[in-house]
Design brief:
single chain, 195 residues, Aminopeptidase, five-stranded mixed beta sheet, two-stranded antiparallel ribbon, Acyl_CoA_acyltransferase, GNAT_dom, ribosomal protein
């Protein structure tokens, strides 16, 4: 179990750090190649409707802040086990956040990647109070730019027939994603581990 105030580095083991506020976890410096690429002059394609929105890679995670975001979209697999949620964030290849000018967390995306061939978008979520404002699109566009060198950028989502599934499918298609079947591929997974 990771104790509040634990300091965790990429590929490292937890070590106690009295300097960390309770409920906050830090991972070491963001790995090379993960820095925000410069925006091309005049490029507005990744600019959401929030004029003061900041998309940035983060390596510190406030337990309460991220729990509140996951709870807002009812992702109980994360909220029922905050320690697992924090381990997932810490062990991600990249965590991007979307914050307003006041620093409020509005959304986030995280990836699992070898940073060469495959990038898997593990989570993409936006607080429901900020849906349809371009935040999810801005996060995905930033991921597409950062991982443009990878052969595959993959994600999984609900079936199109599930509640909200049609909306999610339309969103990902609008960003250029195709179903695996359309790419003449298939995906497989083991049964969900609830333990």
């Amino acid at each position: 179990m990771l104790a509040p105030g634990a300091r965790v580095r990429f590929g490292g083991n937890p070590e106690v750090s009295a300097a960390e506020p309770a409920g906050r976890m830090t991972i070491g410096p963001v790995p090379p190649g993960i820095g925000r690429p410069p925006r091309r002059k005049g490029d507005r394609s990744r600019m959401p409707s929030h004029t003061d929105l900041r998309i940035a890679a983060e390596s510190e995670f406030d337990r309460a802040e991220f729990l509140a975001l996951y709870a807002s979209v009812e992702w109980t697999g994360y909220t029922e086990d905050p320690e697992r949620m924090l381990r997932g964030l810490v062990n991600s290849h990249l965590v991007l956040t979307a914050r307003d000018g006041a620093g409020t967390l509005l959304g986030m995306a995280r990836t699992i990647s070898d940073d060469a061939a495959v990038c898997y978008v593990q989570d993409l979520l936006v607080h429901p109070g900020h849906h349809r404002a371009g935040i999810g699109r801005a996060l995905v566009e930033e991921l597409k730019e950062r991982y443009r060198h990878c052969r595959f950028v993959l994600l999984s989502t609900e079936a199109e027939s599930a509640p909200g599934g049609a909306r999610n499918h339309a969103f990902y298609r609008s960003l250029g994603f195709l179903s695996l079947a359309e790419k003449q591929m298939a995906g497989f997974g083991l049964p969900r581990n609830r333990g």
